[in-house]
């Protein structure tokens, strides 16, 4: 049910964006665009995307405290921090500021037109974090494949929208609707998957490093 609700909201926001653009171009009515612009800041779609990211970050932080496997706790914690940062970035446009600050240095990699410096910065941080996060994902894949694949599919969809379509736009391809819709859909999938992980983790008692599959690792006396 959560997946259906999130999906309907995302489709509605994409539709409202297109409607707002049409009103702005056809009737010179721009107020709707200021509310529903997918590419804007401080708009309803932006706040929805930010809240989604924050919600997944909070859920993963909870998983980082409750899961029995230390590598999964570490992975969940790293991804939680990243998603909370992305939540802030969504409304504060930190990535644009990073590009603005670093574009003056010629040695910093970028795409043509001084675009996408932030992509290289974020990619470097992701590569640095992967040795610490990937073992937890592999352990989750071994233990609950559906959950691991759900998180991976959500992350891949999010990054394909936020990075892949963004890069395509530097060369004249891609679209704002596709980019933002894919981002929101990817985060929605991660949100639903995180809820399922947390429900299973807390439901079967696999909490903390002192438990294994719902049973205490300490042998009771007597």
How would you explain this protein's 3D organization?
By secondary structure, the chain is an all-alpha fold. The chain has one domain (41-203). 76% of the residues lie in helices and 2% in strands. The protein is built from 8 helices and 2 strands; from the N terminus they run ααααααααββ. It has a two-stranded antiparallel ribbon. Strand 1 (211-212) and strand 2 form a beta hairpin. Helix 3 runs antiparallel to helix 4 (70-92), helix 3 (44-66) packs parallel to helix 8 (176-203) and helix 4 packs antiparallel against helix 6 (117-143). The longest helix is centred in the C-terminal third of the chain and has 28 residues, at 176-203. It is globular, with a radius of gyration of 20 Å. The chain starts with a helix and ends in a 6-residue tail after the last strand.
List the SSEs and their pairings.
Elements (H helix, E strand, L loop, with lengths): L1 H26 L3 H6 L7 H23 L3 H23 L1 H9 L14 H27 L1 H26 L5 H28 L7 E2 L2 E2 L6
Antiparallel strand pairs: 1-2
Helix pairs in contact: 1-8, 3-4, 3-8, 4-6, 6-7, 7-8
In brief:
By secondary structure, the chain is mostly helical.
Main β sheet profile: 2 strands, antiparallel
Global shape:
globular
Order of helices and strands: HHHHHHHHEE
Number of strands: 2
Q: How many structural domains does the protein architecture include?
A: 1
Radius of gyration (Å): 20 Å
Runs with pLDDT <50, length 5+? 206-219
Helix content: over 70%
Structural class by secondary-structure content: mainly alpha
Figure out the total of helices.
8
Mean pLDDT: 81
User: How much of the sequence is in beta strands?
Assistant: under 5%
Strand order of the largest sheet: 1-2
């Amino acid at each position: 049910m959560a997946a259906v609700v999130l999906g309907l909201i995302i489709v509605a926001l994409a539709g409202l964006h297109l409607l707002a653009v049409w009103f702005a171009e056809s009737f010179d009515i721009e107020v709707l665009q200021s509310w529903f612009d997918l590419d804007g800041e401080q708009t309803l779609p932006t706040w929805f995307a930010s809240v989604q990211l924050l919600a997944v970050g909070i859920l993963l932080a909870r998983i980082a405290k409750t899961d029995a496997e230390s590598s999964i706790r570490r992975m969940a914690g790293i991804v939680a921090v990243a998603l909370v940062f992305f939540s802030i970035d969504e409304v504060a446009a930190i990535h644009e500021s990073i590009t603005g600050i670093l574009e003056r240095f010629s040695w910093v990699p970028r795409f043509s037109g001084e675009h996408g410096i932030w992509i290289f910065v974020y990619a470097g941080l992701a590569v640095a974090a992967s040795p610490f996060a990937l073992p937890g994902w592999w352990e989750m894949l071994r233990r609950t494949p559906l959950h691991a694949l759900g998180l991976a599919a959500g992350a891949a969809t999010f990054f394909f929208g936020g990075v892949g379509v963004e890069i395509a736009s530097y060369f004249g391809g891609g679209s704002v609707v596709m980019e933002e819709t894919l981002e929101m859909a990817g985060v929605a999938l991660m949100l639903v998957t995180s809820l399922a992980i947390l429900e299973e983790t807390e439901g079967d008692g696999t909490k903390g490093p002192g438990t294994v599959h719902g049973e205490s690792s300490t042998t009771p006396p007597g």
